[in-house]
TrEMBL record:
Residue ranges of every copy of the Transcription regulator PadR N-terminal domain listed in the record: 6-74
Short name of any one Pfam family annotated for the protein: PadR
Organism of provenance: Dictyobacter formicarum
Source organism, top-level taxon: Bacteria
UniProt-recorded name of the protein: Transcription regulator PadR N-terminal domain-containing protein
């Protein structure tokens, strides 16, 4: 996977190895930071395969994508998209981390309660109980959607932020 991620980094601009590491750290909010011990051998492999080229500048090599590299990147676009789907979201701040952990635990508990409860309603042939559970879950979802939309609206970009 690192091969394709390095090609992705170079799609944006030519960089040296440590710039790529920093590029990943910034774009994944610190959740992914490949080590130099994996980056440089992988860069050498990509160079040997003709996907990138290196130019020596002062004491560093600056890598850039070749046409073969662009083709290889396009071939694996789905893998790259999957990676960004997982890692390109901001991590919770230190201040909100306990609440995020609590939220995850509560969601897990809710799932466990529902999974344990609805078979009982089925076993006792109680469609009313199943309907009540469904309505309760729908209400919970709607309330959470409302909170999310309020949060999104309060953080919407202003016209000056969009231009920047």
């Amino acid at each position: 996977m690192l091969r394709y991620l390095l090609l992705e980094a170079l799609r944006h601009s030519a960089m040296h190895g440590y710039e790529m590491i920093k590029w990943f750290e910034e774009r994944t909010y610190g959740k992914y930071s490949p080590s130099p011990g994996t980056v440089y051998p992988t860069l050498q492999l990509l160079q040997d395969q003709g996907f990138i080229q290196a130019q020596k500048q002062v004491e560093r090599s600056v890598y850039s994508l070749t046409e073969n590299g662009r083709s290889e990147l396009a071939t694996h676009a789905n893998l790259i998209a999957d990676f960004w789907e997982r890692y390109a979201r901001p991590a919770p701040s230190y201040a909100t981390l306990p609440e995020v952990s609590f939220l995850r635990e509560e969601l897990s508990d809710l799932n466990r309660v529902v999974e344990q409860g609805w078979p009982c309603a089925i076993q006792h042939d109680n469609p009313e109980a199943i309907l009540q559970m469904r309505h309760a879950l729908e209400g919970c979802q709607n309330e959470i959607r409302s909170i999310i939309s309020q949060c999104s609206a309060s953080h919407a970009a202003t016209p000056s932020e969009v231009q920047e």
